[in-house]
Design brief:
- The chain has 347 residues and is mostly helical.
- The chain folds into 2 domains: 14-199 and 313-343, 3-Layer(aba) Sandwich (Rossmann fold), CATH 3.40.50; 218-309, Tyrosyl-Transfer RNA Synthetase (Orthogonal Bundle), CATH 1.10.240.
- The chain has helices at residues 27-43, 57-60, 67-83, 101-110, 115-119, 122-128, 137-151, 165-182, 228-236, 256-268, 273-280, 285-311, 314-343; strands spanning 15-19, 51-55, 92-95, 157-159, 191-193.
- The strands form 2 sheets. Strands 1-2-3 form a 3-stranded parallel sheet. A two-stranded parallel ribbon has the order 4-5.
- Helix 3 crosses helix 12 (285-311) and helix 10 packs across helix 11.
- The longest helix is centred in the C-terminal third of the chain and has 30 residues, at 314-343.
- The protein is globular, with a radius of gyration of 21 Å.
- Bound molecules: tryptophanyl-5'AMP (TYM).
- Tryptophanyl-5'AMP (TYM) binds at residues 16-20, 28-29, 32-33, 56, 59, 146, 149-150, 158, 160-161, 163-164, 167, 199-201, 210-211.
């Protein structure tokens, strides 16, 4: 892992990321984020680098969440993390609201970040839509809380999908302005880690739209809780073009739906897109889709089975999260204390 961009001080590497428990997990979340979390956990096992993964429930409530659904979705997300290979003995797993330091540092950052910076955020524009006046203040301030999530651990590396790149860049802007305003070298310049064949998984119905849990059409996405039949049927009905698959990557230009399915295949089979095309080039979708469906079922079914098993004992999930929150607080509390000192707050 490379060092975070220098600010003068060398920060030791630490990994943080989070997912909103605002609905079921999608294949996009899995390939773009969770699989990368697991890789980073396993790659850094022996080096003593902490990997910290959060369920960002305070971000989820920036839009309405039914309370019972929020509780269930938070547990299901934790189950998804664990079933995918995150190990509470190796990574710190917890939900955001249990560690008050996130919101506390988030307030300081609300006072550092500028309105104009927030207004430029693509996710804000997409989620608030035409009715910005009616959006919650929390939705507008969302990226400042995200910066606090990351910086309260002095995290240097943040594995995310492509759509979160802008927010991680804003995190750097907030860190830089804080450091500059107070004449310190306190927060690191965090690097987004956006890697793999599926950093932007697209809708199965429209290759120009991101696969998303909030898309009204369930056919547009694969949910981590879908059974084998649902997965196969969604892939069979996925939108494609009439041509055969190309043998080289260049042949996927202007073919967003074909590219998406090949990217998914590559990510699920741990191959590069070139390797996949060397194998499947020339095949029709009628042949490729069943291959992809079989692969997706083989990879995802064990995870959804394990998620269902873990969900039978919610107390055990809650205990894991409480323990993770205690560990997280131990790292976050001294960072927040120092930030308060820098700002001049009496404690
Ligand atoms: P969220 O909850 O929308 O998504 C969680 C993660 O999944 C990735 N992702 C995708 N990757 C590839 N293709 C897709 N179709 C796809 N859909 C989602 C996202 O890029 C993300 O990595 N703001 C964040 C949550 C957050 C956070 C943080 C992340 C809050 N604080 C601190 C990192 C660090 C979000 O809304 O992600």
């Amino acid at each position: 892992m490379t060092d975070a961009a220098p600010t003068g001080t060398q920060f030791s590497p630490r990994v943080f990321s989070g997912i909103q428990p605002s609905g079921g997990l999608t294949l996009g979340n899995y390939l773009g984020a969770i699989r990368r979390f697991v890789d980073m956990q396993n790659a850094n096992q022996d080096s003593g680098i902490e990997t910290i993964y959060c369920m960002v429930d305070q971000h989820a409530i920036t839009v309405w969440q039914n309370p019972a659904d929020l509780t269930r979705n938070t547990r299901e997300l934790a189950a998804g993390y664990i079933a995918s290979g995150l190990d509470p003995a190796k990574s710190i797993l917890f939900n955001q609201s249990q560690v008050a330091e996130h919101a506390q540092l988030g307030w300081l950052f609300n006072c550092v970040a500028r309105m104009g910076w927030m207004q430029r955020m693509t996710q804000w524009k997409d989620k608030a839509g035409k009715n910005q006046q009616n959006a919650s203040l929390g939705l507008f301030a969302y990226p400042a809380l995200m910066a606090a999530d990351i910086l309260v651990y002095h995290a240097t590396h943040v594995p995310v999908g492509e759509d979160q790149k802008q927010h991680v860049e804003l995190t750097r802007d907030i860190a830089a302005k804080f450091n500059h305003d107070f004449g310190v070298d306190f927060f690191p310049m965090t690097e987004p880690v956006i890697e793999g064949a599926a950093t932007r998984v697209m809708s199965l119905r429209d290759g120009s739209k991101k696969m998303s849990k909030s898309d009204p059409s369930d056919m547009s996405r694969i949910n981590m809780t879908d059974d084998a039949e649902a997965i196969a049927s969604k892939i069979r009905k996925a939108r494609t073009d009439p041509d055969a698959l190309p043998s080289e990557v260049d042949g996927l230009a202007e073919r967003p739906e074909a590219r998406n399915l090949v990217n998914i295949y590559a990510a699920l089979s741990d191959q590069t897109v070139d390797q996949v095309l060397a194998d499947v080039g020339g095949k029709q979708f009628s042949e490729f889709k069943p291959m992809l469906a079989d692969l997706a079922v083989a990879k995802l079914s064990p995870i959804s089975g394990e998620m269902a098993r873990l969900m039978e004992t919610p107390d055990e999930i809650d205990a894991i999260l409480r323990k993770g929150a205690d560990q997280a607080r131990e790292i976050a509390a001294p960072v927040l204390k120092k930030a308060y000192d820098i700002v001049g707050m009496i404690r």
